[in-house]
């Protein structure tokens, strides 16, 4: 397994080209199952999660033509409507093929994704919503088998908890349903809007995406289109927090107004971090001013609140800041796996239930550490860049799931970082 070695203590100066959003690309690739026509998707990041989704789609008879960050997909009737455990367990978002398969073929057998390091990740909201659209499910031997005679039926669905994945599965299923579907308490993440814009380009009839009520009038067929994936707001936020932790000035390129406005809003409590939109919102200039004492309380929330996917990175970026901060994780039940590793580096952290208290640590020193999940691994990168001496991060396959060319991007900004292949 590859490792990453970082010698910390340097500030960052330079430019970083932000990649396309992983969490937008995954449902958009799954949406190719909704039509037999060609879907062309550009600005797709080269990440192991993307490759896992492509492998799963190929197993469902989707012809894939990939050239760098552009992918053409043509979905023909699969020999079997089975999404195998071996493919789904590697990448939970594989479960997003359920809605499209049921909408197109009226049946699907998908392995339950199971839990992961950050929580047990149930899928009850997906199944309850699809059940309201007429699907009957059987759950046995770790698989969920859904079927319906004829087309899905439009329905009024009240999600009792906001769920990005459930909103995406139901949204895709509803595009081909008979009649109107209303999704109440829908997730409002920008990635849902990106998916909706792709579906509308394919001929779907969708209103209200980006709000808590989405209305979809089903159509008979969807058609070919080309679409460019939005920039990755979590990758952008991760690099902004690298600058906050290490100091320096970095320009993020290939972002957009929505990503800039979101990060400016959710990072505004970091008084010594200046974020300035430039080049009509396609650039975001990030500058760390002199260190000042900061004590903040941050609670993770669904969009447009502080993203749970930046919680670990915020924690590590605060390790050398004077003051006492509280960070509360409200979305997942176990998203603190990084704390033990940060304490091994000398961090002054105290976890109390869903809260972590961050205080200034005397000396943050490099150490041998282990990544446990995707965002925990990027938090260890930030801590390593801030620490005195050398850090070796093990199990970087977690990092490769969500950050394209991370070492190259940081090296171009002056970081002393290299990958050790083993
Ligand atoms: C998406 O996961 C993202 N993944 C996650 O990003 C992100 O952390 C999460 O949304 C929250 O923003 C992708 O988009 C591929 P949820 P998802 O359904 O859809 C509970 C990353 O780091 N829930 O919004 O799985 C669930 O347990 C990843 O890039 C149910 O109870 O998240 C959680 O507590 C990590 N029943 C909460 O809802 C359900 O049926 C939010 O989960 C579904 C979810």
What does this structure look like?
With 422 residues, the chain is an alpha/beta fold. The protein folds into two domains: 207 residues, UDP-n-acetylglucosamine1-carboxyvinyl-transferase, Chain; 207 residues, Alpha-beta prism (UDP-n-acetylglucosamine1-carboxyvinyl-transferase, Chain), CATH 3.65.10.10. Helices cover 29% and strands 27% of the residues. It has 13 helices and 24 strands. The strands form six sheets. Strands 22-23-1-24 form a four-stranded mixed beta sheet. A four-stranded mixed beta sheet has the order 2-15-17-16, covered by helices on one side. A hairpin with a 5-residue loop joins β12 and β13. α6 packs parallel to α7. It is elongated and about 65 Å long. It starts with a strand and ends with a strand. The mean pLDDT is 96. It binds ligand EPZ. Ligand EPZ binds next to α1, α5, α6 and α12.
Strand content: 25-35%
The first-level CATH class name of the largest domain: Alpha Beta
Are any ligands bound, and if so which? Answer: ligand EPZ
Approximate shape: elongated
End-to-end CA span: 5 Å
CATH level-3 fold name of the largest domain: UDP-n-acetylglucosamine1-carboxyvinyl-transferase, Chain
Task: From the alpha carbons, calculate the radius of gyration and give it in angstroms.
Answer: 22 Å
In order across it, which strands form the biggest sheet? 22-23-1-24
Count of helix runs: 13
CATH architecture grouping of the largest domain: Alpha-beta prism
Compute the number of strand runs.
24
Q: What's the rounded overall pLDDT mean?
A: 96
Tell me the structural class. Answer: alpha/beta
- The unreliable regions are none
CATH superfamily label of the largest domain: Enolpyruvate transferase domain
Percent in helix: 25-40%
Largest sheet: 4 strands, mixed
């Amino acid at each position: 397994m590859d490792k990453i070695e970082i010698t910390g203590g340097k500030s960052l100066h330079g430019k970083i080209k932000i990649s396309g959003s992983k969490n937008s690309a995954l449902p958009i690739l799954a949406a190719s199952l909704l039509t037999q026509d060609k879907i062309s998707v550009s600005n797709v990041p080269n990440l192991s999660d993307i490759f896992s989704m492509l492998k799963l789609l190929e197993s469902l008879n989707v012809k894939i033509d990939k050239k760098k960050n552009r992918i053409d997909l043509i979905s023909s009737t699969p020999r079997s409507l089975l999404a195998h455990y071996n493919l789904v367990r590697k990448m939970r978002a594989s479960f997003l093929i359920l809605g499209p398969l049921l909408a197109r073929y009226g049946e699907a057998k998908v392995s339950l994704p199971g839990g992961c390091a950050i929580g047990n990740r149930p899928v009850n909201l997906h199944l309850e919503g699809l059940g309201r659209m007429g699907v009957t499910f059987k759950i046995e031997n770790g698989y969920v088998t859904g079927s319906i005679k004829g087309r899905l039926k439009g329905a009024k669905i009240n999600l009792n908890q906001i769920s990005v994945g459930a909103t995406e599965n139901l949204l895709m299923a509803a595009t081909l349903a008979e009649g109107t579907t209303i999704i109440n308490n829908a997730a409002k993440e920008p990635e849902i809007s990106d998916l909706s814009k792709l579906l509308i380009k394919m001929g779907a009839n969708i209103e209200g995406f980006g709000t808590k009520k989405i209305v979809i009038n089903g159509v008979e067929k969807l058609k070919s289109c080309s679409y460019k994936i939005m920039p990755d707001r979590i990758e952008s936020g991760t690099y902004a927090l690298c600058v906050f932790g290490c100091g320096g000035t970095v320009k993020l390129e290939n972002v957009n107004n929505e990503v800039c406005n979101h990060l400016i809003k959710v990072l505004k409590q970091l008084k010594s971090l200046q974020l300035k939109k430039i080049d009509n919102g396609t650039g975001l200039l990030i500058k760390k001013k002199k260190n000042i004492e900061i004590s903040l309380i941050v609670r993770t929330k669904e969009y447009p609140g502080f993203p749970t996917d930046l919680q670990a990175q915020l924690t590590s970026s605060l390790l050398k800041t004077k003051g006492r901060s509280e960070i509360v994780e409200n979305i997942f039940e176990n998203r603190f796996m990084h704390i033990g590793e940060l304490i091994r580096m000398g961090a002054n952290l105290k976890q109390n239930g869903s809260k972590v208290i961050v205080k200034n640590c005397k000396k943050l020193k490099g150490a041998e550490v282990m990544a446990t999940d995707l965002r925990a691994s990027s938090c260890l990168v930030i801590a390593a860049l801030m620490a005195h001496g050398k850090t070796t991060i093990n199990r970087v396959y977690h990092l490769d799931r969500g950050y394209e060319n991370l070492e190259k991007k940081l090296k171009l900004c002056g970081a002393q970082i290299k990958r050790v292949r083993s």
